[in-house]
Design brief:
Length: 792
């Protein structure tokens, strides 16, 4: 061991006395400083001034700055630096072995009692210790970040540092082996770059073969540190780096031994193959799902499935779950990034998406069905390939995509298995467990996401709903009343409600219901009456009264001018749509655009991320958010709601209008002329503020009956929600109406490291010090050491 340490010390000294080592350190520091201070300069002053104007923002900002500034694989300091890290290490290692040959000292080493493995271990240890200097550079910026960022995540920084150090060591092992192959440093560097390029792209080769795909996936260097940068340490990643390091260091040892003692070619080849096969075997076994261990060090455990999801997966203990992915070669959505996710070349990506779920249920079995089919009446493929049959078209498409056409079955064969219309003739999955089956057309998203970016495609809540369906649980049943020209969930017009079909994958069964010809089903949990245009018949009103008397929940939406349609029903609830229409003349908007703010009750409707953020804000500030700062949106064409305080229901305002300047305009509102003026003689009414939506509750039949009434039906329409971005409020209303059973929200804890503690002047000073002064000092130190060494 003493000899190894002596060699390591000499190797470290040699590195310090080379210009290349100082060059790489200085450039590494400068790159870290550039990528760290660049984002600081952009967001630091903005945060400082925003906090001065709105002191509550530090409690409200959702961003985790430890990850955002430093470890985020999508753009943090480390992610940017790691893109260029492979350029540094080959420059350091290219002389490690070749230096001995060029100086002639290799003969002395061979003739000394020093064992070759001690020489190799010592030299590699010296390079590894030098790599710690890169980690010290990162540590300097992490310590700086601890002063810059509020409540910084130290475990996340340690996890990221571990990932970077292992990556540096793997690069060093590859460079070490390359240096043993030649006495020319430049050639060694080129060989190192070649190995790194191969290991970075090997997961794209021979992906059509299952066994080979698993091996190449293990050998791939791509994104190996990504999980550790996010705070997830896995045994398969640790073992991967250890295997790569041991394999290439062993290769270097074999090369050096062969230069001392000649051996038969088959013996040399056998040693290399033995180490290579053992490495692949270790990697293959360690990457099997049952063999992987996980440690999530992130503050909110955001790399792990939400506890609610973990609990739902326990419902399927005792039998394996089967997931069958159906992939259509002739998908009508060619721009869909998930369209061909199940093809052989992408299977590892697909399985990686499922890994968070397989972590807690390792016996999930995957099957793949490849087919080609087009929707009935769709002639687009025939127009693109005139005169060709569908089978011939599939053959041409598969050939262009370099896929074996024999993998795909035709329309007749696939219909014997499943109706592709279930998925709209695009990709989709069937999840089976025992005798239960559910169909989904979405894929697992990354864990830790609390915002519905696209509820139809991704999110844990959608999978939780699918798991509950699979376990046999009854879903909330929503009935949209039709028959009197109500808003439609089928039509896609700007005034319609078709977007509400996105509630289906989140756990809702949705139907239409014509009360003139049908009764309310016993399993109906929520009725929606959205802007009927004609008077409700006595039979319909009686059915609705009976439903309400029995404690049924409802969502009722009206519009100005249609008060006579809904008021006969609403009077039973103690509510009335007020006559006329709310107006608020302004310079930029038409007078029917009425601004409103949200009462605190809105934030208790459901566990939507934004609503929970406002709850958190009110908790820390101790008061309701000022209405001027929380003007949620504009209502276009709304009327106020009045309610009887003596009613059985307890009424809570949801969307009051901004106080002052809003009034009820009687008669016809002319919008393309001069702004309307309040006229008491014409019956106009003016109050301080108006309620445009009410939340009603009462105890009925042993449960709390819940009803929401709105004086504007447009705020749920696709057009207005697209403008206002308030789909989460509507989802939260449906969540509240079904007692918050669904959506099965998976809200993770709010990030505490969400603000910078820096003034603009400190940002400028920090940028100056780290980007220019410190690299200059390092350069000066390196010059002094190198000059003194040369004089000696």
């Amino acid at each position: 061991m003493k000899r190894i340490l002596t060699i390591a010390k000499n190797e470290l000294r040699n590195l310090f006395y080379t210009p290349v080592a100082w060059f790489t350190l200085i450039v590494f520091w400068w790159m870290c400083a550039l990528f760290y201070t660049m984002r600081l300069a952009r967001i630091g002053p903005r945060m400082y001034h925003a906090a001065l104007e709105y002191p509550y923002l530090p409690f409200f900002n959702p961003g985790a700055l430890t990850e955002g500034l430093i470890t985020n694989p999508g753009g943090g300091m480390l992610a940017n630096v790691l893109q260029y890290l492979y350029l540094f290490i080959p420059l350091l290692t290219m002389n490690t072995i070749s230096r001995e040959f060029n100086a002639g000292t290799h003969r002395l080493l061979y003739s000394s009692p020093l064992r070759m493995r001690e020489l190799v271990a010592g030299k590699f240890l010296g390079v590894t210790v030098f790599n710690l200097l890169f980690i010290l550079v990162l540590g300097a910026f992490m310590i700086t970040a601890a002063f810059d960022i509020k409540s910084i995540e130290y475990p996340l920084l340690l996890s990221a540092s571990l990932g970077v150090f292992l990556l540096l060591s793997a690069y060093a092992a590859i460079g070490f082996f390359a240096s043993s192959l030649t006495r020319y440093p430049i050639v060694a560097a080129v060989i190192s770059f070649s190995f790194l390029i191969i290991l970075g792209s090997i997961d794209t080769l021979w992906q059509q073969y299952d066994f080979v795909r698993d091996l190449t996936s293990f050998l791939s260097l791509k994104s190996r540190t990504g999980r550790m940068l996010k705070g997830l340490i896995t045994t398969k990643d640790i073992i991967y780096f250890l295997v790569i390091i041991l394999m290439f260091v062993s290769f270097a040892l074999f090369v050096l031994k062969d230069k001392v003692k000649q051996s038969p070619w088959y013996f040399k080849t056998g040693r290399f193959l033995t180490v290579f096969v053992l490495s692949l075997t270790a990697g293959y076994i360690s990457s099997r799902q049952n063999a992987i261990g996980y440690l999530d060090v992130s503050a909110g455990k955001t790399n792990t499935l939400h506890p609610k999801t973990q609990q739902n997966l326990k419902l399927f203990d005792g039998a394996p779950m089967e997931v069958t992915l159906y992939t259509n070669l002739l998908t009508p959505e060619p721009n869909d990034r998930f369209a061909f996710i199940g093809l052989p070349a992408n299977i590892n990506t697909y399985l990686g998406m499922w890994e968070p779920y397989r972590r807690f249920k390792s016996d999930i079995q995957f099957k793949h069905v490849y087919y080609y089919a087009v929707p009935p009446g769709d002639s687009s493929q025939y127009k693109a390939f005139p005169g060709k049959s569908l089978k011939q078209i599939a053959g041409l498409v598969s050939r262009a995509m370099k896929i074996d056409s024999s993998l795909f079955i035709g329309p007749e064969e696939v219909r014997k298995i499943i109706d592709p219309g279930i998925f709209g003739y695009v990709r989709g999955s069937k999840i089976s467990w025992k005798d239960s089956t559910v169909f989904i057309n979405f894929f697992p998203s990354s864990t830790g996401s609390s915002v519905f970016t696209n509820v139809q495609l991704t999110s844990e809540p959608a999978f939780n709903a699918a798991f509950k369906r699979l376990a046999g649980e009854k879903m909330p049943h929503i009935g949209f009343i039709t028959g009197e020209l109500e808003r439609s969930i089928v039509k896609t017009g700007e005034r319609e409600y078709s977007w509400l079909n996105s509630l289906r994958p989140l756990g809702f069964d949705i139907d239409t219901l014509n009360l003139a010809t049908e009764n309310v089903p016993a399993d109906m949990n929520i009725l929606v009456l959205a802007d009927p245009k004609r008077e409700l018949s006595e039979e319909v009103v009686n059915k609705l009264h009976s439903y309400i008397d029995e404690g049924g929940n409802m969502f009722i939406l009206g519009e100005p001018g249609k008060q006579y349609v809904l008021n006969p029903l609403l009077q039973k609830l103690g509510v009335n749509l007020m006559p006329g229409q709310l107006v608020r003349p302004s310079f930029h908007q038409t007078p029917d655009a009425v601004p409103y703010y949200e009462s605190p009750a809105v934030y208790d409707l459901g566990e939507e991320y934004n609503l929970a953020a406002f709850r958190r804000l009110m908790k820390f500030t101790g008061h309701q958010i000022p209405s001027s700062d929380t003007q949620a949106a504009l209502l276009f064409g709304a009327t106020g709601l009045s309610y009887n305080k003596d009613s059985d229901f307890t009424a809570t305002p949801l969307f009051p209008t901004i106080p002052e300047r809003t009034w009820l305009k009687m008669g016809k509102l002319v919008q393309d002329s001069v702004p309307p003026v309040f006229n008491e003689q014409e019956g106009d009414q003016k109050e301080n503020a108006y309620n445009t939506a009410l939340q009603l509750t009462r105890k009925r039949n042993g449960k709390e009956q819940r009803i929401v009434i709105a004086g504007d039906a447009d705020f749920v329409s696709g057009l207005r929600l697209g403008q206002n971005g308030r789909q989460d409020r509507v989802r939260a209303i449906f969540s509240w109406l079904n007692y918050n059973r669904y959506p099965a929200y998976t809200l993770f804890p709010f990030a505490e490291d969400n603000w910078l503690k820096m003034t603009p002047s400190w940002v400028k000073l920090e940028r100056l010090i780290y980007l220019w002064i410190m690299p200059s000092l390092l350069m000066l130190l390196g010059i002094v050491i190198l000059v003194r060494r040369k004089r000696r």
